[in-house]
Design a protein that fits this description.
- The structure holds two protein chains of two kinds.
- Chain A contains no helices and twelve strands.
- By secondary structure, chain A is an all-beta fold.
- In chain A, strands 2, 5, 6, 10, 11 and 12 form a six-stranded mixed sheet that branches. In chain A, strands 3-9-8-7 form a four-stranded antiparallel sheet, with no helix packed on it.
- Chain B is mainly beta.
- The chains are: A mainly beta, B mainly beta.
- At the A-B interface, strand 5, strand 6 and strand 11 of A face strand 4, strand 5, strand 9 and strand 10 of B.
Chain lengths: 113, 113
């Protein structure tokens, strides 16, 4: 069965510091991995995805993520956090032959000035 | 270029009633998926429509049904509403390539009293 784990309910970081939001996954075959961000009372906004190729993926708003097959992880990172990055972040996985995204439970990122 | 749009924004119904939610996909997209996001949880896949047919379905009862129109827009119908159906309902669309990203709309907040 496919699953996604986001082990931290909340991550707190000071503005200007690097941030990491963790994600591990379980799926048979090659995974398609995604990060989405959700602001209050809003839908999900796409940040980045890994399909194949370079393990380091760069996305919107300065975010990047590293695919690690041996650790089955896809952690989201940003070198310098902004207060405006404060939001709910979701990691998701799907198999290559389906549209069904499996989401984690989300990690709330709080960036303090 | 308009993104994914959904209507209505909010909806209040009582137990036992029926509801219809609407989605217009992003321009150039022909595949629509629906997700249910309960409070404090990640979205869960309901079903996907392509070429006016339901192609994939998640673990949701038959009370949840849908439709896709020739212009690729879609409806989600829920019959015999239960209190537990209260959630944010998200529509996502993508173009034909399976590696393509699903883009989400702002959602419809359904409250069942």
């Amino acid at each position: 069965a496919q699953s996604v784990a986001q082990p931290e309910d909340q991550v707190n970081v000071a503005e200007g510091n690097p941030l990491t939001v963790k994600c591990t996954y379980s799926v048979s075959g090659n995974p398609y991995l995604f990060w989405y961000v959700q602001y209050p009372n809003r839908g999900l906004q796409f940040l980045l995805k890994y399909i194949t190729g370079d393990n380091l993926v760069k996305g919107s708003y300065g975010f990047e993520a590293e695919f690690n097959k041996s650790q089955t992880s896809f952690h989201l990172k940003k070198p310098s956090a902004l207060v405006s990055d404060s939001a709910l972040y979701f990691c998701a996985v799907r198999r290559y032959n389906t549209d069904k995204l499996i989401f984690g439970t989300g990690t709330r990122l709080q960036v303090f000035p | 270029d308009a993104g994914v749009t959904q209507s209505p924004t909010h909806l209040i119904k009582t137990r036992g009633q029926q509801v219809t939610l609407r989605c217009s996909p992003k321009s150039g997209h022909d595949t629509v998926s629906w997700y249910q996001q309960a409070l404090g949880q990640g979205p869960q896949f309901i079903f996907q429509y392509y070429e006016e047919e339901e192609r994939q379905r998640g673990n949701f009862p038959d009370r949840f049904s849908g439709h896709q129109f020739p212009n690729y827009s879609s409806e989600l119908n829920v019959n015999a509403l239960l209190l537990g159906d209260s959630a944010l309902y998200l529509c996502a669309s993508r173009s034909a390539g399976l590696t393509d990203t699903q883009y989400f709309g702002p959602g419809t907040r359904l409250t069942v009293l």
